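Module 6 notes. Inverse folding takes a fixed backbone as the condition and produces residue identities as the prediction. Think of it as a translation problem where the source language is geometry and the target language is the twenty amino acids. Below is one complete input and output pair. Work through it position by position during the lab.
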């Protein structure tokens, strides 16, 4: 682990140790095994040559980080690396996914982390990192297509439809090359809800825009990283590490071209 990463993790432990929002060991004395999860930092360019990130606010009633601003993401499901699901994936092999994640998982589970990025981004904000059967980008300017996919997104959230079935019906494939892995965080052992989370970056696809709200999002906001950092102490902008740590890193990058080069985004 590099010095910067070690300092970042120490900041998180110190910060969370004083926060009542994550249940404390006094009430939950047993250590909990972390669940595998994926989170995606979605970016878009601005007219002045800079860039913005998408932050979504979780509904206050949600058990984990309810009311806080976060990046889209969630738990890796078994269905994310089922044979049917992996058959709907392109542009990343299981062996390459395993290598990128430092050999921590078998190839199928490693790929499942990328699939979770694509699925969660669609479920939470309606953005699809997918291509058609011919390899063309998904174009959501067609109102009928957009409406049909939104109805299917809602069915997914209600557990009435799985992601692989949606992709097969629409002749779509996850373009896993659009999600670029860049970091790994594990919730400290003292907390009752723990996640072993892989962090990714992705560029907002052309002709797509996130939903204003959804079942897991009260609202979303596009914001420049340094502007978000300047608001983090306000009571109406609740935000925690590692979200803030990543914003802090991105705030040091001056332009859209620089962030694209640094993280090899496409």
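Target side of the pair, the amino acids:
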């Amino acid at each position: 682990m590099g010095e910067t990463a070690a300092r970042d993790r120490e900041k998180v432990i110190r910060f969370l140790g004083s926060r009542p929002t994550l249940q404390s060991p006094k009430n939950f004395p047993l250590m909990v095994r972390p669940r595998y999860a994926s989170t995606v930092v979605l970016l878009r360019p601005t007219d002045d040559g800079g860039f913005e990130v998408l932050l979504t606010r979780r509904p206050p009633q949600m058990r984990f980080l309810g009311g806080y601003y976060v990046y889209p993401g969630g738990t890796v499901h078994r269905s994310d690396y089922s044979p049917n699901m992996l058959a709907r994936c392109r542009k990343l092999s299981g062996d390459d996914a395993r290598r990128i994640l430092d050999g921590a998982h078998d190839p199928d589970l490693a790929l499942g982390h990328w699939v979770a990025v694509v699925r969660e981004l669609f479920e939470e904000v309606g953005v699809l990192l997918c291509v058609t059967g011919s390899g063309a980008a998904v174009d959501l300017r067609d109102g009928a297509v957009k409406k049909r996919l939104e109805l299917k997104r809602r069915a997914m959230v209600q557990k009435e439809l799985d992601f692989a079935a949606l992709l097969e019906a629409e002749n779509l494939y996850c373009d896993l090359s659009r999600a670029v892995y860049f970091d790994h965080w594990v919730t400290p052992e003292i907390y009752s809800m723990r996640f072993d989370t892989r962090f990714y970056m992705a560029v907002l696809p052309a002709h797509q825009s996130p939903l204003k709200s959804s079942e897991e999002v009260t609202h979303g906001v596009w914001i420049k990283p340094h502007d978000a950092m300047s608001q983090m102490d306000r009571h109406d902008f609740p935000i925690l590490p590692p979200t803030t740590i990543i914003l802090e890193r991105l705030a040091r990058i001056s332009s859209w071209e620089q962030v694209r080069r640094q993280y090899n985004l496409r």
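Reference fact for the lab report: DSSP finds nine helices and ten strands in the chain.
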